[in-house]
From TrEMBL:
Keyword DNA damage set for record: no
Described purpose of this protein according to its UniProt entry: High-affinity Na(+)-coupled choline transmembrane symporter. Functions as an electrogenic, voltage-dependent transporter with variable charge/choline stoichiometry. Choline uptake and choline-induced current is also Cl(-)-dependent where Cl(-) is likely a regulatory ion rather than cotransported ion. Plays a critical role in acetylcholine (ACh) synthesis by taking up the substrate choline from the synaptic cleft into the presynaptic nerve terminals after neurotransmitter release.
Catalytic activity: choline(out) + n Na(+)(out) = choline(in) + n Na(+)(in)
Organism: Monopterus albus
Subunit text: Homooligomerizes at cell surface. Interacts with SEC14L1; may regulate SLC5A7.
One protein family per Pfam: SSF
Database matches in InterPro entries: Choline_transporter, Na/Glc_symporter_sf, Na/solute_symporter
Organism ancestry: Eukaryota, Metazoa, Chordata, Craniata, Vertebrata
Family recorded in the similarity comment: Belongs to the sodium:solute symporter (SSF) (TC 2.A.21) family.
Annotated membrane topology: Multi-pass membrane protein
UniProt record, GO biological process: acetylcholine biosynthetic process; neuromuscular synaptic transmission; synaptic transmission, cholinergic
Entry protein name: High affinity choline transporter 1
Location(s) in or outside the cell: Presynaptic cell membrane
Residue intervals passing through the bilayer: 6-27, 51-70, 90-108, 129-151, 163-184, 191-209, 240-259, 271-296, 333-358, 379-400, 406-428, 435-451
Amino acid sequence: MAIHAGGLVAIVVFYVLILFVGIWAAWKNKNSGVGKDGDRSERIMVGGRDIGLFVGGFTMTATWVGGGYINGTAEYVYLPDFGLAWAQAPFGYALSLVVGGLFFAKPMRSRGYVTMLDPFQQLYGKRMGGLLFIPALMGEMFWSAAILSALGATLSVIVDININMSVVISALIAIFYTLVGGLYSVAYTDVVQLFCIFVGLWISVPFALSNPAVSDISVSAKKTIYQSPWLGKIDPGDRWLWADNFCLLILGGIPWQVYFQRVLSASSATYAQVLSFLAAFGCLVMAVPSVLIGAIGASTNWNQTTYGSLPPKDKDESDMILPIVLQHLCPPYVSFFGLGAVSAAVMSSADSSILSASSMFARNIYQLAFRQSASDREIVWVMRLTIFVFGAFATAMALLTGSVYGLWYLSSDLVYVIIFPQLLSVLFIKGTNTYGSVAGYIFGLLLRIGGGEPYLKLPPFIYYPGWVTQERIHHLTGDVEYFIQQRFPFKSVSMVASFIANVTFSYLAKYLFESGMLSHKYDFLDAVVSRHSKEIMDKATLVSNHDNIILSEMAPVKQALSASLAGTFTNTEVLSDDGASSPEAFHNEN
């Protein structure tokens, strides 16, 4: 297999730059955010809570603007049956960041949490926190694997090097600087990566537009030239499906540790909100070159290019339209610069997901569920180990699993239908408890899995109204694949059902136990009776046989401003100027 020297040099230079910035960030901030007790684990997880607006805005934008974002946006604009009308990610994720900033960033940051799972474990207990960790971990791991897989294919298109080698090297670099510097290294490398994405793609667009094989994209937007117009349209029968997917992006984009890790690293609750709004604007800006590249692909006579007579859509390579445009419509030196942009996008998302997964495991599973007496040094080593393990797992999946995108689609749906309603309940609904949380979890899981997943060839056992049988033609082999498409907005319905089940069963359990209709001995989750008696007890009292984690049991959180906390989630004026300090206080106000 031939290796393009120029492309290889471009990759080496870019990767060395990223590695240098990651190590420099770790060295520069090695003592930042570490208090008198040397709490290095929190510095790794949330950067000492002193991430500024500039770096914070870049790193939060880079969280969403990854390989899947830029490649996926270009793909949907290019596809004849979809077009810009179905390229929902830019507006969906931008609105997700706006909603997150308006309603979720302030309560999460002001209460001093360290991970997204903290409020669940505080209110619903260790076991429920462990259950909610499963879809959260699946989402992060499958997302990392999916974008690493896309990176390998992208590099092989432009540079013609071994896919496995490129994926492994990229993953190793991301794992290494994440191991060394934690969130600081991830955040500072995100600044460089986002700059490379922006410059790399924008440099490529003028060259691709001026290629003789490309027709006027303003004409092909509304008229059929080589394929249907790239603006696309939404058929009346697909409106509910479109709305379902759009709601998934907006609301399902909130309950991710990669997002809240940035929120919780901000120096104040107000800064956390501002970071969300800046990232929303950044997502829209960064999507523009991807949209243009997709439109260019739809406006190209591929028979006049070095690609071949058949367009990418007829070779089942629509998902590679961005690197194909860079390779065949731009000069070699420009395509190699664009290659750096693509690999930057992938690494900026992969390192964030790996760090997020290891943070949740080290704190919410290892420390709070099993080893509450663990030292800070022990937690740091657990994080380092899990960063390596989760990174290796994501890399192995990218190389060995053919259905990695299907796994990510399903896991992201589970984040939407399970974790979002739980987050809504724990932050804003008074009186919910562990019984309601379990019921909501089960309802959401069954209703979503029941709808099936075509990408995993998982057949449905619940046929929602309006379902149809669709066919997918594999152009290279001529094979025809049939699958069930659910046009009913069953994902959003599953999410609402999960939320209603949580609230309903919480109040039902509370009524049954407090009215005496059920004996207190049946409160096996200690979610109603023990909680009620705890309200009149000293908050410092530890109940050794109690599954729920009370304030004094939580690992302490130290502020960058050295403001001490009585417990993990105790509110102080340094942290908050609003409302209740924790879900427990909020739920017990009555």
